[in-house]
Amino acid sequence: MLGLEECEKPAELAGRGGVWFALAGRAALHVGVVQEGFTPAAKAHPALRAPDEAALRALAATLHDAGAPVRWDDPLPGVAARFFTDDPWGNRLELLC
Q: Which of the four CATH numbers 3.10.180.10, 3.40.190.10, 3.20.20.80, 1.10.260.30 does domain 43-97 have?
């Protein structure tokens, strides 16, 4: 739902589960397999930047319509708008523009 493109993991890591997503430049977001006893972090989280406020608001609507929480927060210096959501495992994600 975030519109991220899945990228291939190196062969050496392919059998370990999880998924990688391509980000801008050479960056990637790595999401591992949930292990027994896992507890999501309450504060630690990645922040992903949308290209503009229209795209951010459209993403928020898509997530909301799919039943994901959308919690708008105050903008930061240099940030027009931002919100938080949770992935299906309870991990906090910040989306901003």
A: 3.10.180.10
